């Protein structure tokens, strides 16, 4: 950007950045405006008490600002109340909110909210709201995590929030006569999900069914069982032969009959696996299955740990639940039991894990039967009761984590709020108010009864009279349009939301919870304020934009249970580039688990090119506070704020500008002059308006001097970028060169690939890519394929044989010996790297301004 200023009231900026060589890449719909903590800001931008409302300060500004808001993409201002009043279904298409004349209604609160969000960013203010981020989040566990877990039963829930457990640390066979065991014995006993009832009146017929009588009401019923010792390859384990309610267990002979039947069944399974392996041309099948030993039967008491989950979800391939032994009653087995008390913090972590499952699957339907009951019946699992079963992660003899499943989710050490600098956390006192709090208003967050608040010094009067566009500006779609599912924020994907101690992107951290949100402040820092990118390629007037915003006239053919899969979305040309309509929901595959109840469909929208005129009333603002507001209202053409629904999909990009001819701004002393003159004609305001326009340039100077990164990041997001499509992550699907990956209703596959662990040479691995910086456009494009190939020779390879790596080696631009990569610098001056090995220019950008 040039350092040359334009005339007063204007902001110098060069327009959207054109990304070079971004083929095979996409842009995430959002980025982050940084939150510098040690910026030497002018006194007017420091925290402090607000101005009063009882008088006009002679040195502060008061008046009205006439503003024009022009849509550059379709705007969705849905009328939920009208849909509810009409008695239509909760997921019926949403109309646009209109007045009695059919003209679109733009609520002043919507404009005020958009202005406040932007104002917080450009003034480096505190977050006005940060509720819900004081709870721990969780991340998917790695497979080796399961090997450290031990089954346990809650024996006491204490008044201070802690809990006492009985943990099964060991369950070894006593006087074992077989070969030496290669691995430790699994301490959770396996229970077949279809185990038949062979003790008359003693069991329910199937694991997890309710039992009659006086059985205590918990999710983990107490049982007695006969168990036998078995080997699964090198892994020794125990398996239940028969089980029943305490006191009703059948004798050992029935259990022995079951063991003989199980041995025959497992042999038959091994023979069948060998036959299938031979059909596939494999010379040897190393999967011998479960080997039932002759070690004597053992009678135990314990509790069933029943989740009902399947893997993969809904495919019914899971065969076993678990049984947690609390007492060995008879037989050669040596239990190792401990009784630790886990702290309230660990119990809170348990709740965080259960809550994370709910959030992870909020977009899916029919969870019952496909996932564990801790997903679809989270309320039952969230609170621990005496008798409940769970898994414990020990470390150096002490519990460090509680989990519902062996391979599940692990909580981060701390909550996201810990990584938000105190300077930017919501104010707790009127003396701590930041500029956005003073101008737009503030309410203390929390559950106390005081509800301390401050009424702001800005009001937004909704459009009226000539400021309301006509009813012809409301576009009725040919048919209702289903939008791409708009999920809630996913800060558990900490690679995007969390930075290093300076807020810079993390450099491929290990996929461990300890690398995420820390327990103590200072180790990590949130990236900044989330802001949505303008979809610059499809703004009103751009080549191909009109066609892009014209949904297909015919609905996609739905999938049928026995029919062919639905057709894929068709690409189109936008500005000479191949794009998909990223806002339209793709056809749903017949096997999809999408939750249609959260799908949003619309029947109308406000047309691009529609102008609303409204008035802002301000009082007692300092020159800097007003200058920041006028700076936002004077963004260059092409730089957009966002309003309404669907901002990640490109909807609601608006140009906001001041109508200076209809604006009246005075300092307090000028207002006094008006009251001193007994005249119908007030004194001229030209001098004041000239001074007010100068405030725009003055605040631009403040940004350039004190908040350079903030200015560039905000303007880059407001302008958007050209050269790459904008959408949520999705994985490569074999689309031809120059064509983005085809839209589909799932995005988890990209995240799974990005997290993939492949430690062996020649194996595919996830690159653990983080989100780039808005101040460095070259770092923003993300590859559709976030995997790489580990350098080196794979096991069994011959000298000179190919490792199967992609052109460019392991990580594009990375040396082949895979040393630790240097830490990226916060600002420009480095070379940005895309995922396919290209390098951007020396300014750290993926190209120049258009």
Structure characterization notes:
The protein is an alpha+beta fold. Helices cover 18% and strands 21% of the residues. It contains 14 helices and 36 strands. The strands form twelve sheets. Strands 4, 21, 29, 30, 31 and 32 form a six-stranded antiparallel beta sheet that branches. Residues 1-7, 208-217 and 794-846 have low confidence and may be disordered.
Q: Give me the count of strands.
A: 36
**Proportion in β-strands:** 15-25%
Unreliable residue runs: 1-7, 208-217, 794-846
Note the overall shape: elongated
With helices defined by DSSP (H or I, 4 residues minimum), what is the helix count? 14
Helical amount among residues, as a percent range? 10-25%
Radius of gyration: 32 Å
Q: Kindly report how far apart the N and C termini lie.
A: 12 Å
Give the averaged pLDDT, no decimals.
Answer: 82
Secondary-structure-based class equals alpha+beta
Largest sheet: 6 strands, antiparallel
């Amino acid at each position: 950007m040039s350092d040359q200023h334009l005339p007063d009231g204007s902001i110098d900026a060069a327009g959207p950045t054109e990304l070079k060589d971004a083929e095979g890449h996409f842009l995430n719909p959002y980025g982050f405006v940084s939150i510098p903590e040690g910026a030497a800001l002018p006194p007017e931008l420091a925290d402090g008490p607000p101005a009063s409302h009882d008088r006009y300060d002679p040195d502060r500004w008061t008046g009205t600002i006439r503003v024009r808001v022009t849509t550059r993409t379709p705007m969705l201002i849905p009328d939920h109340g009208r849909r509810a009043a009409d008695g239509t279904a909760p997921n019926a298409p949403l109309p646009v909110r209109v007045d009695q004349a059919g003209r679109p209604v733009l609520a002043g609160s919507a404009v005020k909210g958009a202005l406040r969000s932007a104002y917080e960013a450009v003034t480096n203010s505190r977050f006005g709201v940060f509720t819900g981020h004081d709870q721990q989040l969780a991340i998917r566990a790695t497979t080796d995590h399961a090997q450290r877990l031990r089954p346990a039963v809650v024996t006491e829930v204490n008044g201070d929030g802690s809990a006492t457990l009985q943990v099964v640390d060991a369950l070894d066979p006593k006087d074992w006569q077989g070969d030496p065991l290669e691995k430790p014995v699994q301490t959770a006993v396996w229970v077949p999900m279809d185990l038949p009832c062979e003790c008359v009146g003693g069991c329910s017929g199937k694991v997890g069914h309710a039992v009659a009588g006086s059985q205590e009401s918990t999710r983990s019923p107490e049982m007695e069982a006969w168990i036998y010792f078995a080997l699964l390859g090198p892994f020794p384990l125990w398996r239940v032969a028969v089980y029943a309610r305490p006191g009703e267990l059948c004798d050992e002979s029935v259990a022995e009959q079951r063991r003989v039947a199980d041995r025959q069944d497992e042999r038959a399974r091994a023979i069948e696996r060998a036959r299938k392996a031979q059909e596939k041309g494999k010379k040897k099948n190393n999967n011998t299955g479960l080997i039932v030993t002759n070690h004597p039967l053992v009678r135990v008491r314990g509790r069933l740990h029943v989740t009902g989950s399947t893997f993969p979800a809904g495919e019914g391939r899971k065969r076993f639940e678990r049984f947690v032994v609390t007492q060995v009653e008879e037989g050669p087995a040596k239990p190792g039991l401990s009784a630790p008390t886990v702290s309230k913090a660990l119990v809170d972590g348990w709740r965080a894990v259960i809550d994370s499952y709910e959030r992870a699957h909020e977009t899916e339907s029919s969870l019952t039967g496909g996932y564990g009951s801790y997903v679809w019946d989270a309320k039952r699992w969230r609170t621990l009761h005496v008798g409940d079963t769970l898994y414990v992660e020990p470390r150096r003899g002490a519990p460090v984590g509680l989990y519902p499943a062996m391979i599940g989710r692990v909580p981060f050490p701390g909550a996201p709020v810990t990584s938000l600098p105190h300077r930017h956390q919501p104010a707790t006192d009127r003396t701590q108010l930041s500029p956005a709090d003073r101008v737009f208003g503030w309410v203390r967050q929390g559950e106390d009864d005081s509800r301390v608040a401050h009424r702001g010094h800005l009001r937004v009067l909704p459009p009226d009279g000539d400021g309301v566009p006509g009813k012809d500006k409301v576009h009725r779609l040919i048919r209702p349009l289903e939008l791409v599912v708009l999920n809630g924020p996913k800060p558990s994907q900490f690679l995007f939301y969390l930075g290093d101690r300076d807020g810079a992107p993390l450099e491929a951290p290990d996929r461990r919870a300890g690398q995420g949100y820390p327990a103590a402040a200072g180790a990590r820092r949130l990236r900044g304020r989330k802001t949505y990118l303008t979809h610059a390629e499809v703004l009103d007037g751009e080549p191909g934009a009109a066609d892009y915003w014209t949904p297909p006239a015919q609905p996609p053919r739905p999938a049928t249970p026995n029919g062919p899969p639905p057709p894929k979305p068709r690409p189109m040309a936008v500005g000479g580039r191949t794009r998909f309509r990223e806002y339209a929901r793709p056809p749903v595959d017949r096997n999809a688990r999408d939750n249609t109840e959260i799908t949003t469909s619309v029947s109308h929208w406000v047309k691009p090119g529609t102008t609303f005129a409204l008035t802002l009333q301000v009082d007692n603002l300092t020159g800097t506070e007003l200058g920041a507001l006028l700076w936002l209202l004077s963004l260059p053409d092409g730089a957009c704020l966002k309003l309404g629904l669907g901002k990640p999909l490109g909807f609601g990009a608006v140009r906001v500008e001041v109508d200076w001819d209809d604006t009246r701004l005075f300092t307090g002393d000028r207002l006094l002059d008006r009251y001193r003159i007994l005249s119908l004609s007030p004194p001229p305001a030209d001098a004041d308006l000239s001074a007010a326009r100068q405030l725009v340039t003055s605040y631009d100077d403040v940004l350039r001097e004190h908040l350079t990164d903030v200015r560039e990041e905000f303007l880059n997001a407001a302008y958007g970028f050209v050269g790459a499509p904008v959408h949520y992550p999705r994985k490569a699907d074999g689309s031809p060169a120059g064509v983005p990956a085809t839209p589909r209703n799932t995005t988890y596959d990209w995240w799974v690939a990005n997290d993939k662990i492949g430690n062996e040479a020649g194996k595919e691995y996830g690159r653990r890519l983080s989100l780039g910086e808005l101040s460095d456009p070259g770092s923003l494009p993300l590859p559709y394929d976030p995997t790489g190939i580990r350098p080196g020779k794979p096991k069994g390879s011959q000298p000179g044989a190919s490792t199967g790596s992609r052109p460019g080696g392991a990580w594009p631009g990375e040396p082949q010996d895979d040393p630790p990569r240097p830490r990226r610098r916060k600002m420009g001056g480095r070379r940005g790297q895309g995922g396919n090995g290209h390098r951007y220019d020396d300014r750290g950008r993926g190209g120049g301004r258009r």
